[in-house]
Write a structure and sequence with these properties.
About 25% of the residues lie in helices and about 25% in strands. The chain has helices at about 15-20, 40-50; strands at about 1-5, 25, 30, 55-60. The mean pLDDT is about 95.
């Protein structure tokens, strides 16, 4: 699986707080940290996706 942050990110930082192994903030917006989401980080990545207030995070199979 890998993470995609689509257009519309408001830069709230929730995803980076919930799952810093997968997301970080750059120029005020969220960007994926890793090319591939480690299996151990999938629950936190899903929590970040589900908690995104503007629903711009997708987790996609490779």
């Amino acid at each position: 699986m890998h993470a995609i942050v689509n257009e519309g990110c408001i830069g709230c930082g929730l995803c980076a707080d919930v799952c810093p192994a997968v997301f970080h903030m750059e120029d005020g917006l969220s960007v994926p940290t890793a090319e591939r989401i480690p299996d151990a980080e999938m629950p936190a990545a899903a929590e970040a996706r589900d908690g995104c207030p503007v629903s711009v995070i997708d987790l996609q199979a490779e």
